[in-house]
């Protein structure tokens, strides 16, 4: 048979390009037509292509893809699928965490060639509201998965071209925003069908055996590239890293995660998550699909090689994942999962921490979780909800070659709400939108700065939910002498007699007309010795408002002359010399304030 | 007696300055091609104009129009060589530009991406006390004293241009105007760009960015245009100078000085308009144009003679929200470098060998193989190009491809060369799909106009890959842009943000909104001295489903704005959405986001003249050479024709090669090529 004949490199490249543009086109339909702000502005969606055996072939996403099709197979064996079928699901527990919280509604379409399935096109988007305890479905105060909206197990929503309208209407009736639900669903279905059409064209052009052989080779190619990255950069050994989430949102008890990993010269033989804390009552449990864990490891290990195509081959070099039932990474149903992102961000950063140890610090410093504010109110006379979800940027960790990125959302592609958009749509006024001065972790390369945003309430009453980790400790650690980024927080009416602090994870915070809520986000960790930072770079940071005059002196040993802000060279030399003699040897990690206390408190 | 209208078109590209003098009535054309003079582009411009007048033997005084496509603004942005800027903005907004939309681009790598440097640093951005609400109401009055202090500080910093951008200025321009007046007093001679003038629509970051870019290129453009006008006047040309805008229309040099942001796509836009003209001559109003140069390919779709318009684009990593032709640019050209990535995949571009060192075969020190090297190895281009001015070395090309591609991949030399070109062709096909299939158009219903030095090498294969039935090769490469410059109208877009549910719209208010925009447009046409008969206004509404993030522009019919308008608009919106994205939902509510009025002022236009009577002829080839003609045929002995010897009606079936002065046309086996009455080569792609 011709099955093992290699595809010529030119055809292989063209098929690779076709997969990539297919995913790009799916993304474009979702972005342009979906309605939930989560999807269209914050780009919280996924699209991808798998082969017949549910192996991920391509996705632009960093931490989603594997596991969804397998869950469909359990309900609908492959030989019961028919052309024209569309499958629908959002069941976290049935997908073993492939879908990690319920608002992610997934649609999948099998692609038939010559009477058999050759591939799947699939996507999901984070819907605005699928019912549950509170508007927007997610809330820090949810304590079981049933409060987190309606659960759709794998179902055949379109059977050979025919929509199961009864089922669809029933699910949609559970949304507080049925129009958005409808628009999002149309967008998802259009995208998954578009993927199907593009794949059909691809098979038609090159023939089944060539395309399938190319799929296999593309998987092998990614595998080779990741192995290469590992063997070039990783020192084999067993490494441990731990991290924290301030609390589980419904109690004040901090939650610890710990990863133990065994790196060899060409792979990862073990990822052990079992030392992490038990599952919690609040919604930060992260049901971790083992293949998603492997996917994250693979992308961090190969972080400097951006030619690696994200597919199942890329995570082959990463071996067994050990999870403990009843733990934060393997909670038992019906544990709430809505805000699993915080534990997942700590997971990803812990992987960076492991790789930092195995590569003499050749990784970016620590970065922050996402920060989200939800403003809600209900107009009792019309029965209409207003719901504004604002995701805030934060500072990213500094790199061995550059400063950390200032003021960006920690997932690529996600955009903010413009001030003018917010003020047109919601009874709010944004009175200040700036970078958070001195928040970037000092280093030879500075951590990115967080942001500061002031919201003034223009309605009688607004209910706020908050999501921000790292108030009890400095979440964004520094590397190789770089220091941790400074934490943020929430405060109401800053500088006024009515000033009060707001917890990082809370719901049902009532704000009245004219109240101001200030959100300040953390900076990223620094990289390398801050006393080696270029003087002009420090001066520029002061001139542009990223670092204060006092910060320049305290953090970087750079003395600026007041008014002119010229560098006082002699004083700077003295200051840096003094600081050098007064400090201890620089460790690989600076965990900042609070971390040691949290670790101590655990024993 | 018919009035003789002579017009001159000058398109300044990266390498060449193309100049065409046309008798608009007879269609007679005179052309010269000059090397671009990068240090002062006005010199090449003036030399070209003088040469073309000499060639035609025409006095400068009879020229009544000069039309120009320029890249001065684009280069200033890409090379970061614009003005030293200062800005006034609303208190609390100093970092809006730096924060941007708070996003890492979707196709970038989260851990390795570095934010591009801003055109103005926060240290030169001054916050002043003032505040408006979304409806234009005054929350806090402008503090004029604070303004003056800020302006003085910027004056001391010797800024060369000033940006003024206040929140919600699209709804009320009063504060920006007052600040502008203060700036005129405090910083005399410093040009001011105000956001309510440059882009009066909501979303502060995008508006601030557009205003900043405008200010950034303003001194440079203004200086350049002054030079041009001086040089034209020295040559005795007194006709008005007009500049091609990014939206495919023209505006006066005076206006270009005030709103130079509209020139960022000036050059490519001219090419698109030229392709439309050439397409029309061949009886095609649906054309996709691809202009392939040394480093990039510009692609645009024109439906029924109207080029696509984008309201969101990107240049040099910065978002552009001013309306521009939907030109999709990819890093694919003759100089694109083929290399093998770390993971073993063969990539072509986007890195380019540029003009220096250029492709390996230029013998100027370039070692890596480029697409031009591949064409040379395949026999597709001769060893002498650019009318004999450049000699190519096939041995150097072969060595580069052997070393970097053929050996590592275990391919023969020709297989490797053909592979490089095939990958590039597929990349270009994907980009054409992006402007057609992804926008709801079927490329099989379009003709492909191939321009630029390298376009005609790729036309046939693109036709095969996309099912495009006809390829049009213009009579001369480089002509396309100047033809475009001679065949367009004055055009300006006026936009007003107005987000509301469409069924809540008051037709009377809507009508008033349009009247206001129409009044502005009419005033502009008047100031451009366009007689009433030559004025045209096109009204459109930017619409979306409530909660969507992207709008679709729906055209209004001529009928008056009344109660029947809204349901009609909604109907058309659903239909347009269905066409674009394959779904529509009549039960969902629709929003009106913006009103749009485009004003056109008709200019005298070139009518292409026929070269002669079409008489079928076969002609004899001037020679033959071995050329790679696709996987099936491989390398075959191929007849070579000189374009200069071909007459209208000449016809042949590939394999064949036609050599034009500055480009080569490859006709693949079974493709049928004809020269039409205008000298364009029409190629039928076999099914």
Summarize the structure.
The complex is a heterodimer of chains A (603) and B (687). Chain A is an alpha+beta fold and 603 residues long.
Please describe what this structure looks like:
- The complex is a heterodimer of chains A (603) and B (687).
- By secondary structure, chain A is an alpha+beta fold.
- Chain A has 13 helices and 22 strands.
- Chain A has helices at residues 9-33, 37-40, 68-75, 165-172, 178-206, 208-233, 290-301, 341-358, 419-425, 535-543, 549-556, 569-582, 595-602; strands at 45-51, 56-59, 86-89, 104-113, 116-126, 155-159, 162-163, 237-245, 255-264, 267-272, 318-322, 371-379, 384-392, 428-435, 451-457, 461-467, 478-479, 489-492, 500-502, 505-512, 516-520, 589-590.
- Chain A has a 7-stranded antiparallel sheet, with helices on both faces. A 5-stranded antiparallel sheet of chain A has the order 14-15-21-18-19, covered by helices on one side. A 4-stranded mixed sheet of chain A has the order 8-9-10-11.
- In chain A, helix 7 links the parallel strand 10 and strand 11 (318-322).
- The longest helix of chain A has 29 residues, at 178-206.
- The radius of gyration of chain A is 25 Å and the shape is globular.
- The mean pLDDT of chain A is 94.
- In chain B, strands 13, 14, 15, 20, 25, 26, 33, 36 and 37 form a 9-stranded mixed sheet that branches. In chain B, strands 3-2-1-4-11-12 form a 6-stranded mixed sheet, sandwiched between helices. A 4-stranded parallel sheet of chain B has the order 6-5-9-10.
- In chain B, strand 31 and strand 32 form a beta hairpin.
- Chain B is α+β, with helices and mostly antiparallel strands and 687 residues long.
- Chain B is globular and about 80 Å long.
- Chain B folds into 4 domains: 6-76 and 222-263, ATPase, nucleotide binding domain (Nucleotidyltransferase, domain 5, 2-Layer Sandwich); 77-221, no CATH class; 268-484 and 608-687, no CATH class; 490-601, Dna Ligase, domain 1 (2-Layer Sandwich).
- The model of chain B has no long low-confidence stretch (mean pLDDT 90).
- At the A-B interface, helix 1, helix 5, helix 6, helix 9 and strand 14 of A face helix 3, helix 7 and helix 12 of B.
């Amino acid at each position: 048979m011709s099955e093992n004949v290699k595809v010529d490199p030119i055809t292989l490249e063209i098929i690779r390009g076709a997969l990539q543009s297919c995913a790009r086109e799916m993304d474009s339909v979702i972005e342009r037509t979906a309605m939930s702000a989560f999807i269209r502005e914050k780009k919280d969606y996924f699209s991808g292509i798998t082969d017949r055996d549910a192996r991920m072939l391509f996705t632009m996403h960093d931490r989603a893809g594997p596991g969804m099709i397998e869950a469909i197979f359990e309900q609908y064996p492959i030989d019961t699928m028919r052309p024209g079928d569309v499958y629908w699901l959002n069941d976290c527990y049935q997908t073993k965490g492939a879908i990690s919280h319920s608002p992610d509604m997934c649609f999948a379409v099998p692609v038939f060639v010559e009477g058999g399935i050759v591939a799947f096109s699939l996507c999901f988007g984070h819907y605005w509201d699928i019912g549950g305890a509170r508007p927007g479905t997610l809330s820090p105060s949810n304590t079981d998965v049933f409060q987190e909206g309606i659960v759709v197990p794998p179902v055949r929503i379109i059977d050979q071209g025919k929509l199961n309208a009864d089922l669809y209407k029933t699910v949609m009736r559970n949304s507080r925003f049925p129009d958005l639900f409808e628009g999002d669903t149309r967008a998802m279905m259009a995208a998954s069908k578009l993927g199907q059409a593009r794949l059909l064209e691809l098979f038609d052009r090159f023939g089944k055996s060539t395309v399938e052989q190319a799929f296999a080779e593309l998987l092998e190619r990614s595998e080779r590239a990741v192995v290469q990255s590992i063997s070039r950069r990783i020192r084999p050994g067993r490494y441990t890293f731990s991290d924290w989430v301030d609390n589980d949102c419904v109690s004040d008890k901090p939650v610890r995660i710990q990863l133990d990993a065994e790196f060899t010269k060409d792979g990862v033989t073990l990822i052990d998550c079992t030392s992490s804390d038990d599952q919690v009552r609040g919604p930060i449990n992260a049901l971790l699909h083992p293949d998603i864990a492997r996917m994250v490891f693979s992308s961090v290990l190969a972080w400097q090689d951006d030619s690696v195509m994200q597919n199942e081959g890329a995570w082959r070099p990463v071996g067994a994942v050990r999870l403990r039932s009843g733990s934060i990474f393997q909670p038992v149903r019906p544990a709430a999962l809505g805000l699993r992102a915080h534990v997942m961000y700590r997971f990803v950063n812990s992987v960076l921490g492991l790789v930092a140890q195995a590569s003499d610090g050749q990784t970016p410093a620590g970065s922050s979780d996402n920060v989200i504010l939800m403003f809600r109110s209900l107009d009792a006379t019309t029965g209409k909800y207003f719901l504004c979800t604002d995701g805030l940027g934060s500072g990213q960790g500094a790199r061995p070659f550059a400063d950390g990125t200032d003021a960006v959302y920690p997932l690529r592609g996600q955009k903010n709400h413009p001030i003018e958009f917010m003020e047109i749509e919601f009874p709010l006024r944004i009175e200040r939108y700036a970078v958070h001065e001195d928040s970037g972790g000092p280093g030879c390369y500075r951590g990115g700065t967080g942001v500061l945003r002031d919201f003034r309430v223009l309605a009688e009453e607004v209910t706020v939910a908050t999501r921000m980790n790292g108030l009890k400790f400095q979440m964004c650690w520094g590397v190789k002498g770089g220091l941790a980024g400074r934490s943020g927080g929430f405060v109401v009416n800053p500088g006024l007699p009515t000033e009060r602090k707001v917890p990082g994870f809370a719901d049902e915070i009532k704000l009245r007309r004219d109240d101001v809520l200030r959100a300040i986000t953390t900076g990223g960790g620094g990289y390398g010795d801050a006393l080696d930072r270029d003087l002009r770079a420090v001066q520029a940071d002061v001139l542009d408002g990223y670092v204060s005059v006092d910060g320049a002196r305290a953090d970087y040993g750079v003395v600026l002359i007041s008014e002119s802000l010229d560098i006082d060279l002699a004083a700077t030399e003295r200051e840096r010399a003094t600081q050098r003699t007064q400090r201890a040897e620089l460790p690989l990690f600076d965990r900042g304030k609070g971390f040691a206390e949290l670790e101590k408190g655990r024993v | 007696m018919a009035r003789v209208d002579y017009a001159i078109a000058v398109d300044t590209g990266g390498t060449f300055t193309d100049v065409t003098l046309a008798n608009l009535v007879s269609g007679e054309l005179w052309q010269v091609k000059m090397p671009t003079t990068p240090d002062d582009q006005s010199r090449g411009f003036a030399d070209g104009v003088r040469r073309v007048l000499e060639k035609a033997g025409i006095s400068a005084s009879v020229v009544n129009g000069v039309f120009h496509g320029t890249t001065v603004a684009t280069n200033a942005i890409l090379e970061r060589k614009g003005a030293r800027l200062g800005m006034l903005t609303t208190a609390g907004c100093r970092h809006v530009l730096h924060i941007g939309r708070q996003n890492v681009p979707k196709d970038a790598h989260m851990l390795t991406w570095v934010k591009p440097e801003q055109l103005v640093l926060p240290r030169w951005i001054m916050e002043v006390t003032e505040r408006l609400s979304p409806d234009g109401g005054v929350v806090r009055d402008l503090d004029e004293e604070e303004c003056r202090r800020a302006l003085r500080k910027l004056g001391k910093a010797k800024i060369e241009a000033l940006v003024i951008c206040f929140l919600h200025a699209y709804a009320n321009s009063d504060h920006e105007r007052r600040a502008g007046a203060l700036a005129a007093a405090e910083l005399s001679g410093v040009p001011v760009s105000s956001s309510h003038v440059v882009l009066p629509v909501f979303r502060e970051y995008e508006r601030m960015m557009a205003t900043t870019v405008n200010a950034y290129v303003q001194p440079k453009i203004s200086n350049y245009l002054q030079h041009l006008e001086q040089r034209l006047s020295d040559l005795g040309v007194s006709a008005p100078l007009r500049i091609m805008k990014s939206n495919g229309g023209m505006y006066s040099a005076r206006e270009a000085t005030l709103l130079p942001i509209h020139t960022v796509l000036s050059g490519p836009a001219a090419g698109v308009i030229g392709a439309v003209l050439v397409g029309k001559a061949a009886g095609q109003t649906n054309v996709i144009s691809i202009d392939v140069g040394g480093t990039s390919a510009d692609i645009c779709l024109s439906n029924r003679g109207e080029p696509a318009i984008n309201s969101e684009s990107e240049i040099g990593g910065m978002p552009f929200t001013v309306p521009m032709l939907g030109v999709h640019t990819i890093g694919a050209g003759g100089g694109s470098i083929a290399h093998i990535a770390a993971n073993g995949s063969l990539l072509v571009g986007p890195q380019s060998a540029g003009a220096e060192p250029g492709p390996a075969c230029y013998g100027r020190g370039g070692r890596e193989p480029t697409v031009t090297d591949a064409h040379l190895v395949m026999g597709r281009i001769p060893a002498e190009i650019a009318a004999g001015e450049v000699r190519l070395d096939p041995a150097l090309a072969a060595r580069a491809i052997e070393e970097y591609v053929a050996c590592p991949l275990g391919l023969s030399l020709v297989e490797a060369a053909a592979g490089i070109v095939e990958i590039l062709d597929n990349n270009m096909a994907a980009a054409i799909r992006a402007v057609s299939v992804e926008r709801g158009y079927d490329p099989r219903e379009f003709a492909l106009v191939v321009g630029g030095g390298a376009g005609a090498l790729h036309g046939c294969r693109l036709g095969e890959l996309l099912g495009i039935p006809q390829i049009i090769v213009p009579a001369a490469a480089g002509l396309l842009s100047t033809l475009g410059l001679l065949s367009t109208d004055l055009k300006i877009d006026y936009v007003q943000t107005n987000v509301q549910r469409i069924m809540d719209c008051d037709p009377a208010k809507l009508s008033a909104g349009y009247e206001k925009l129409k009044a502005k447009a009419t005033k502009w046409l008047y100031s451009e001295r366009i007689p009433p008969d030559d004025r045209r206004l096109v009204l459109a509404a930017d619409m979306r489903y409530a909660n969507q993030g992207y709008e679709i522009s729906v055209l209004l019919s001529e009928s008056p704005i009344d109660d029947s308008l809204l349901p009609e608009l909604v109907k058309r919106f659903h239909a347009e959405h269905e066409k674009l994205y394959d779904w529509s939902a009549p039960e969902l509510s629709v929003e009106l986001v913006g009103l749009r009025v485009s004003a056109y002022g008709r200019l005298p236009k070139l009518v292409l003249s026929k070269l002669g009577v079409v008489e079928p002829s076969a002609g004899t080839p001037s020679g033959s050479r071995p050329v790679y003609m696709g996987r099936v045929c491989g390398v075959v002995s191929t007849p070579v024709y000189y374009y200069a010897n071909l007459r209208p009606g000449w016809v042949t079936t590939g394999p064949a090669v036609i050599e034009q002065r500055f480009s080569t046309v490859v006709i693949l086996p079974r493709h049928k090529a004809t020269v039409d009455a205008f000298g364009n080569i029409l190629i039928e792609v076999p099914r």
